[in-house]
Write a structure and sequence with these properties.
By secondary structure, chain A is α/β, with parallel strands linked by helices. Chain A contains 10 helices and 10 strands. Classes of the chains: A alpha/beta, B alpha/beta.
């Protein structure tokens, strides 16, 4: 299975989500999968993190074997090696080594674990320094997202879905690239399962999911719990971005993609199973 | 000299979140460590009752922690306003943050007033 030449959830979400879904479909069909990354010309750390989470998850692989080839582009091969990808995927050909230009740190859990997040941020601070203002905003994104995974990602069942937090520290560029995601039902499918999606469309006079995400981010939609005082996580994340506590916020859930820096929200022709957030911390 | 959270200072009972944890967590205890529910039950409610009984205000200092999820703050302060008369809570509770003023706005203008929505 050949990866798209630009494998990036943030920059090329359609091709990348389609690729992830194709791997899942092949495994579901009972085939072992060879992930051919040889010709990729762009491979961003958040795409690697999601790919890694899926090849390690029996729900996606159905017990089938996933092997891979190494990108010919050396820096991309090193990103993949740094991520630990080859600890979980059988590689065809020589296994690349890391060169130490970037650091990848990953956490995963089923629980809301603010201490683990704080510990990670303290490590990141050693590679890409930041201020209390920046770390406060990023801690908020992470813990709000952990709460959302705990409460919503498993559909009607709470605490059943694992979250993943990964950060790639590019010391040369002075940028820490964070992603947080779960492989659960996603925002819109969660609302649909609870019978709330069509109700919200009617009540708010909305035509599509893009408009609904805009309303959610603006804090104009009550929580799917039915309690008005809940459901403030995503609006607070958007508010922290507006305060410039971090850079470049991207949200992907089901078939809706939002790039808040560009004020862009659009529907994709493919659907990501889960909810994914990406943001950056820039030193200085 | 640092002020102990339990010391009554004039007309105010002071409580620092930092005395509870550096890393405030989720809303409920079962969701993870250092929840808003635990903070409310073990720290806020006793100090709130102490302040009310003495005719004083409760001042909660939010500074020094890693950061807050909205659900922690909502459960700590909105939760208090679901247990006690909301007007009493509004009259008694104040929060402060010298470094992150948006948390003060959030608690005083959203979480407490909207606690029963």
């Amino acid at each position: 299975m050949t990866a798209p030449s630009a494998c990036s959830l943030i920059d090329h979400p359609v091709e990348t989500v389609r690729f992830l879904n194709e791997i899942e479909s092949a495994c579901a069909g009972g085939s072992n999968v060879l992930v051919d990354l040889g010709d990729v010309t762009a491979l961003t750390p958040e795409a690697v993190a999601v790919l890694l989470s899926r090849v390690r998850n029996d729900r996606f692989t159905k017990g089938m074997r996933v092997s891979g080839t190494v990108p010919r582009e050396q820096t991309l091969a090193e990103i993949l090696a740094e991520s630990g990808f080859f600890d979980h995927v059988v590689v065809r050909g020589p296994r690349p080594k890391t060169n130490g230009i970037g650091e990848i740190r990953t956490r995963k859990s089923f629980k809301v674990d603010a201490a683990s997040s704080f510990d990670l941020l303290q490590q990141v601070n050693q590679f890409v320094p930041g201020t209390e203002f920046a770390w406060d905003g990023i801690q908020r994104v992470i813990v709000e997202s952990m709460n959302n995974t705990e409460n919503h990602a498993g559909g009607q069942k709470k605490g059943r879905e694992r979250w993943w937090l990964s950060v790639y520290c590019d010391r040369e560029a002075g940028v820490a690239r964070f992603c947080f995601f779960d492989n659960g039902v996603g925002i819109f499918e969660s609302l649909k399962k609870k019978g709330l999606l069509s109700q919200l469309f009617r009540a708010l006079g909305l035509q599509n999911r893009e408009a609904l995400l805009r309303k959610i981010l603006a804090g104009e939609v009550r929580s799917s719990t039915g309690l008005g005082y809940r459901g403030k996580g995503l609006p607070k994340i958007a508010a922290a971005f507006k305060r410039k506590q971090f850079e470049r916020l991207v949200i992907l859930s089901n078939d809706v993609y939002a790039n808040l820096a560009a004020d862009e929200v659009r529907t994709l022709p493919v659907s990501f199973s889960g909810t994914f957030l990406y943001w950056e911390h820039h030193a200085n | 000299m640092p002020t102990d959270s339990n010391v009554l200072e004039g007309r105010t009972v002071l409580l620092r979140v930092l005395d509870f944890t550096v890393t405030p967590g989720p809303r409920h205890r079962h969701e993870g460590d250092f929840s808003g529910e635990q903070f409310r039950e073990e720290y806020v409610e006793p100090r709130y009752n102490e302040a009310r009984a003495a005719g004083k205000r409760l001042l909660v200092d939010l500074d020094g922690t890693a950061g807050y999820a909205s659900s922690f703050l909502e459960e700590a302060f909105g939760g208090l306003a679901r247990l006690y008369p909301i007007d009493d809570v509004r009259a008694t509770v104040r929060v402060k943050s010298d470094t992150r003023p948006w948390y003060v706005t959030e608690v005083m203008d959203e979480h407490i007033p909207e606690a029963r929505d």
